[in-house]
Write a structure and sequence with these properties.
This is T7L1A factor. It comes from Hypocryptadius cinnamomeus. By secondary structure, the chain is an all-alpha fold. The chain has a domain of 58 residues: High mobility group box domain (DNA Binding (I), subunit A). The protein has four helices and no strands. α2 crosses α4.
Length: 135
């Protein structure tokens, strides 16, 4: 018999993978509706932590530029999925990792160059961006 009863395990949230991890392309945070009437706060003009948090939610989420391996994965994932009967992301990632390590330095250099260009473009588009902005 199991130590955990099935009614204790919560069902997966809507929009999430059964593992509970959101899809990586979903990057915009969920913005809650604010009441239409202005609230009178005793603090006056000073911003409360809640107001600061809501301003942060409105900012667009800027992703880090992809590194060489991520660019390789992005390009090769469809090919690996087509070749294999596996549908689990972790298994596909393992195959892609093994293939990446089996590439020669010259073959990997193509992706390192693409990654360099992507970082350069990212820094031109978002000159003040820092990875810390996402945390």
């Amino acid at each position: 018999s199991s130590r955990f009863s099935p009614h204790v395990v919560p069902p997966p949230a809507h929009g999430l993978h059964p593992s509970g991890i959101p899809h990586p392309t979903i990057v915009s945070p969920i913005v809650k509706q604010e009441p239409s009437q202005p609230s009178s706060s005793p603090a006056g003009s000073s911003k409360s932590p809640v107001a600061v948090k809501k301003e942060e939610e409105k900012k667009p989420h800027i992703k880090k530029p992809l590194n060489a391996f991520m660019l390789y994965m992005k390009e090769m994932r469809a090919k690996v999925v087509a070749e294999c009967t596996l549908k689990e992301s972790a298994a596909i990632n393992q195959i892609l990792g093994r293939r990446w390590h089996s590439l020669s330095r010259e073959e990997q250099a193509k992706y390192y160059e693409l990654a360099r260009k992507e970082r350069q473009l990212h820094s031109q588009l978002y000159p003040t961006w820092s990875a810390r902005d996402n945390y």
